[in-house]
Structures are given as C-alpha cells and as structure tokens.
User: Fold these one by one.
Assistant:
Number 1:
Amino acid sequence: MRASTLPDEPGTAPDPRPERRPLDPDLFAVSPARDPRFRVVDRWLECENLSANDPLHHVEFTHRQMNEEMNGLECSARCLADFPEADWELRMGFARQCWDEARHVRMFRRRLEGLGGHVGQFPVLNFQYRIIARAETLVGRLTIQNRTFEAGGLDAVSWVVREARNAGDPELADFFESQLADEILHVRFANAWLRRTIREHPRELMEMGKAMTRAAKAFKEVMGKEGTDGIFYPTDGASRVEAGFTEEEVALDAELATRNAPRDGDGPAFR
Ligand SMILES: [Fe+2]
Ligand SMILES: [Fe+2]
C-alpha cells in the first residue's frame, strides 16, 4: 500500500530521486491507516497531478479532497484521544469538528461517484495528519490544523464558490458554500481558544512559533517546489474575520498571499 517509503535494498545506493527518499520521521507522525483500496504516497510528486484541461481533473481533485477531509476528522479525533484533560468547551469543538468532517468526507464521496469516479482511483497523501499529529501540544496542533491549514482552506473554498457561481453552476457553488460555513467554525473555535490561552500564558506564543516552523519545514518536504509554485488563493477577508482573525492579521495574510501570486494574475483551478 505504501510503496514510497520502502527502504533501499541492503548494499544498494540510496535512490537519489526526491520522491523516493523517506520523509524525516522527526517531522511526521506515522500515516493513518487506509484500507487496501487506497494507495498512499508521501509526496506531491507521487500523486496524479492532472492538468486543469484533463477530463479527469475534477474527479482527481474531488478524490484528493475527500481524503483531506478524512485527515481533518482523524486529526480532531486524535486531539480528543490525546488530550482528555482539555477544557470541555474545546473538546466539544473537536467533537463537532469530527462530525462536520465526517459529513464532508461523505459529501465528497457522493460527488466523486456522481462524477463517475471511485474510492481508491488515485494515490492519496496524508500529509496534514502526519504533520499535525506530530505536534505534541494542543497549542501546536490547533495552530497548524485550524489556524493555518484550515484557514488557508477558507481562502481556497471561497475562491471555488465564486468560480462556480461565475461559471453558472449554482449547485456546485452551494456544495462548497455549505463546506465553507463549517470550516469557518473550525477556525473560529481554535482562534478563540488560542487567544485566551496566550492571554493567560503569553509564553505559549513561543510554542505557536515553534510549531509553525516545524510545519513549514515538513510541508516543504512533502510538496516540494513543484507542488507550491504559482499556487495562490486571494485572502478571503470576510471569512477570516468571521473565523476570528483580526483585521491586522487579515491584511498581513493578504500581503503574504499576493507575494506568491503568479504574474499573469490567473488563479489556480481546483488544485
Ligand atoms: Fe472539512
Ligand atoms: Fe475543517
């Protein structure tokens, strides 16, 4: 199932191809289990990164997204299991998130099958789970999962909603808009808890910084230049404010996002 991390044969030179090198275990937790229908890979380069013109592009995107939602569910479930002493309110936030992400997995599966695809059709990455679950503290996990990955997802999903509406596909726009409503709540409960924690224990800011540094390093290892170059989603200020970011944080994010924008101004297409 996981061909990419097989060790090299004894006595042979390590494979120099980046996609064949094992991921740094210091930065990644063990991959979550998948049944035999799935082929799990470690790096973006090993996925089928079909071009926007490929007839299977949307099928592959939907398959990938279905597995990413599963990662969201698995991360929240791990937080519930790993931090049983956490505030009740926070644990309720994780439990609700598990429920939402499970619904998202099923939504994406229905859409995948509606497009003629099937579970296991394409290789999948579990990088979100592997990066997030590697963080040892709640501050670290919430910083990476909710405040970074899912906050980035708000921009991406909002962009897809707008594109679908402009393309005259209200059904698809509604599909993603319902997901967006849930994702805003996932970012919001984490932002609220993190702000309270930092107010009470300012040293936790160091933990946030440390978690972000490790996550950025790990993300780079998985995605490589190929998986991130030219990827740009305009910051969705309205969703981010609703999700508990301040106006200053939104402005800073918009500035950073613009720096990564492709020169021709084209946004990505379901990437
Ligand atoms: Fe989700
Ligand atoms: Fe989420």
Note: The chain has one domain: 26-259.
Number 2:
Amino acid sequence: MADSPVSHHSPESNEQEDANSNQRAQMEQAYQQMQRKMRMSKMSEGIRHKIMVLSGKGGVGKTTVATGIALSLARMGKKVGLMDIDITGPNVPKMLGIEGTELHIEDGQIFPAIGPHGIKVISMAFLIEDPDKPVIWRGPIKLGAIQQFIGDVAWGELDTLVIDFPPGTGDEPLTVSQTLPNLDGVVIVTTPQEVALLDSRKSINFAKTISVPVLGVVENMSGYNLSGNAEAGAKFSLMGPTGVPIEVTASQDGKWSVNLDLFKSGGGEESAVELEVPFLGRLPFDPGVVRGGDDGVHRIVAQPDGETAIAFSKVVEEILSSLEKGDIHQVKIT
Ligand SMILES: Nc1ncnc2c1ncn2[C@@H]1O[C@H](COP(=O)(O)OP(=O)(O)OP(=O)(O)O)[C@@H](O)[C@H]1O
Ligand SMILES: [Mg+2]
C-alpha cells in the first residue's frame, strides 16, 4: 500500500497543534495563578486578622453573627471587611441592605461594596444576575471561584476580615484555609439544642484538622428576655415556654426581668468547657434580629444600645482578647 502524502493537516500535526495550544493554556493558567498568589500574599499583608465563622448545623445564625461581629468591630473604630463565601445562598448583602450593589472593577481587581459603619463587603450575591435562580457549581469550578474571589479583591488595609460560610465543614472552609495564609481562628456558632451542640464538635475537629485555632464558641438564640414594671417587691408567676411556671419578684424600684430558655440554655458554654475551647458568650433570641435580617437593617444598626448590640460587643471583646493573646488552643476531641 502506497504511503499517503503528508499534509499540514495530518492527524499527527493536528495532535501537535492541540498539544501546543494545551500547553499554552496550561502555562497561561499557571501564570495567572502565580500572579493571583502574589496578589494574595500582598493582600494578606494588609489584613491584620482573619476570622472564619463556622457552624456544624445550618440556620443557627452564622450570617447574623458574622455580620454582627463585623458591625460591632466597625463601631469600635476598626477597619473591617466581610467576605460571604456562601456561594449557593449568599445573604450577607440582604442582611446589610446593600443588595444589588454594582461592584467597581479596575485593573482586574474587584472593589468591595461599602456597608453600614463603613464595612467592606464582598459576596457572590453581587455577581449573580438573577438572585432567584439557584447557582449550581460543580466541585472544581466552585473551588476556582472561591480562589478567584479571595485573590482578586482589593481590600486595602484592614484590622479584621470576617468570613461567613455555608453550614458544615465542606469544601468552602477547606479551600479558604488552603488559599488564605495566616488565618487567626475560627468562631463557632451554635444554638443551645443538643443536635447543634453535637455538630459544633465537628467544627472544632475540623479546625484542628486544618490547623487553625478555635477562638471560641458563641451560643446564639440563647434565651428570650422578658421584662416589665410592677409594684415594688411584687411576687407573681409567669407561665414558662415549657409549661413550667416561673416565679418572679419585682425589685424595690418595681422592675422585673426573666430570661426564658426557649430551647434550653448553657449548652454552648458546657460544650466549650468540655471541648476545652473558650466560650465567647450568649446572644439572646431577639425577634428584632429576624425583622432586621428581612428588612436589611441589622439589629446592631437599628438599635445600637439594645440588648443584642450589647451582647455582640461582649462577644467581640472576648474575640479581641483571644486574638491579642495570639492563643493557639490545643483542642481535645472526645
Ligand atoms: N439571636 C437571634 N434571634 C432571633 N432570630 C435569629 C437570631 N439569630 C439568627 N436569627 C434568625 O435565624 C435565621 C437564620 O439565621 P442566619 O441566616 O444568620 O443563619 P445561618 O447559620 O447563616 O444559616 P445558613 O446555615 O442557611 O447559612 C434568620 O431568619 C435570622 O434572622
Ligand atoms: Mg448563612
């Protein structure tokens, strides 16, 4: 059989061209990655502290707590950034009333939106065109998006960057911990129920696996405070949420106040003690938090001297003292 003439478009040369363009694409990708890494380490130098907010279970109030910590720090005069890594359900912008903000992009860098008290906010929600359409990301694409998300943001100088995550200990916190150098620690949010507490154990274990210190546990939706006025020294009983009457005595100036344990309280503190991590404090159940989340005015912004804002300040003081000590907590998992 005669040899077929070799043309420029023989299968061999097509293969060669494919290999060359593949190689070019790989080199371009590697170059971009290197540039991003350089930007990332430069960016990281400008950020003093980086805190991750995690929970084992969904809906326990991570986003409420992450935004609350950010706002509380900003009210103390700190320069604060808030990064919403919840790609499938990003709701930080809604909670802060800055949805629909158009981000400024210049020289390949994304400039964060500015929220209440001047906090800088970045969220996938700003990049999604139709907020009602679910975003479905396959594993590697999701991870790439997160890396890009982290590397391409122009944060400038920050005292603290707070990072909000989807529930659990999946790809997102893992990718962030591998991408962002020198994370200071993890704040774990729990509610007082047994199930949520059990899940905090997983978060603590996870922090240990990625070698990031646990700054502590926050117990959210911990009790509901009722107060009022009565005759000085008056004694009466209130029906508690579990059907058990609560005896109340008004003080000499006629004021009374009781803390109702809606789920039960103290579990967060007990589990922190048991797992040998700091307890950062309790945040009360506050219907104003739900309203604020829906209306885009965080409770701390709406009522800066209210019970919730005061509880947040206490939690933030604890976090700051943990950060300043630079404690690396040795965690014992049982
Ligand atoms: N202390 C609180 N008092 C009353 N409601 C609260 C409190 N904390 C959070 N909530 C409400 O609980 C709901 C869930 O809160 P949030 O979105 O912060 O939880 P999450 O852990 O971020 O949820 P997800 O796991 O879906 O990300 C919201 O409606 C929020 O307003
Ligand atoms: Mg959330």
Note: The first helix runs from residue 11 to 45.
